[in-house]
């Protein structure tokens, strides 16, 4: 009996010494529940609980080393956000489809071309917004081409339908542009559309700035989706920087001065002088005084006194 109880409580993780003490106090014929209560009253814990209670030893890492455990992450950090350096993409499906269909046909193939272009670049977050009534069979006044593409994109969790319904035979459609701008603003992404959303710009000043800075326009050239290389104009960022969360600034290229060493502008010259490695901030007169080793303060006093040398 003693050996059977000893084996039973040892399997639970209690120490042999604590079990023997309890059995001596309560007797060999004590019930298992009574022995367990006495073990708990004595403060004895199973070995598994003791190992969990002990803090894990701190691992020392050499200074400058980037080796961290794979499980050490900030609270709420996502793997896709830490590795993905490209901005989320929100596509105005109706605008892209009608543009590809020459504003006559809702061409779903145009949406597929735009999605393929961003997927080839490596974008992982791509959302396309289309009104729900586009799932209905096409009519003469609203023809749709390649409607099966919408079902395929919906299965891939890329396409999102904005709500719409019929009330007494009339279709009630929610404003899909507000969905597009709101999601892109919350995700800090890019809106792909040729629409300027002027009504939404007047509705919210924060949206106005966001639409002006994050609207990516495009063109279709022979079934090829082509956004501009300078989305914000000639003096704005490149397309790669526009679509990146951390843009890479180009190195400044200085234009050499056309006058060369004969330039008399001194520190006011905005061009690059190769003979001035640090672009000296001295005027021409001060540079001449420095060459002849005349103190700068003495030269200024002579200019004030108008004394001849």
TrEMBL record:
Keywords: Endonuclease, Hydrolase, Magnesium, Metal-binding, Nuclease, Zinc, Zinc-finger. This is ZC12D ribonuclease. CDD domains: PIN_Zc3h12-like (cd18729). InterPro entries: Rege-1_UBA-like (IPR040546), RNase_Zc3h12_NYN (IPR021869), ZC3H12/N4BP1_RNase_Reg (IPR051101), Znf_CCCH (IPR000571). GO terms for cellular component: cytoplasmic ribonucleoprotein granule; nucleus. It comes from the Eukaryota. GO terms for molecular function: hydrolase activity; mRNA binding; RNA endonuclease activity; zinc ion binding. Its cofactor is Mg(2+). Belongs to the ZC3H12 family. It comes from Psophia crepitans (common trumpeter). Residues 251-276 form the C3H1-type domain. A zinc finger (C3H1-type) spans 251-276. Residues 60-82 are annotated as: Disordered. The keyword Isomerase does not apply.
């Amino acid at each position: 009996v003693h050996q059977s109880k000893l084996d039973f409580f040892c399997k639970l993780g209690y120490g042999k010494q604590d079990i023997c003490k309890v059995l001596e106090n309560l007797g060999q014929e004590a019930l298992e529940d009574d022995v367990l209560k006495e073990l708990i009253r004595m403060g004895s814990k199973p070995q598994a609980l003791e190992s969990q209670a002990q803090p894990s030893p701190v691992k020392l890492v050499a200074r400058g080393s980037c080796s961290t455990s794979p499980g050490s992450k900030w609270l709420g950090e996502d793997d896709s956000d830490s590795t993905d350096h490209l901005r989320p993409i929100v596509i105005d499906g109706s605008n892209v489809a009608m543009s590809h269909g020459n504003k006559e046909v809702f061409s779903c193939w145009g949406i597929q071309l735009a999605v393929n272009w961003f997927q080839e670049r490596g974008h992982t977050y791509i959302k396309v917004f289309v009104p729900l009534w586009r799932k209905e069979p096409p009519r003469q006044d609203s023809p749709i081409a390649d409607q099966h593409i919408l079902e395929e994109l919906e299965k891939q969790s890329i396409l999102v339908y904005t709500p719409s319904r019929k009330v007494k035979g009339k279709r009630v459609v929610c404003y899909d542009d507000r969905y597009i701008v709101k999601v892109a603003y919350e995700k800090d992404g890019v809106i792909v559309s040729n629409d300027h959303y002027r009504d939404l710009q007047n509705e919210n000043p924060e949206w106005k700035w966001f639409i002006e800075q994050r609207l990516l326009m495009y063109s279709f050239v022979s079934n090829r989706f082509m956004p501009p290389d300078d989305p914000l104009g000639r003096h704005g960022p490149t397309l790669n920087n526009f679509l990146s969360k951390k843009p890479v600034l180009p190195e400044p290229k200085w234009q050499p001065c056309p006058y060369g060493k004969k330039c008399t502008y001194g520190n006011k010259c905005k061009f690059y002088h190769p003979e001035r490695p640090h672009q000296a901030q001295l005027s021409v007169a001060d540079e001449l005084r420095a060459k002849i080793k005349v103190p700068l303060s003495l030269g200024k006093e002579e200019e004030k006194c108008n004394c001849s040398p």
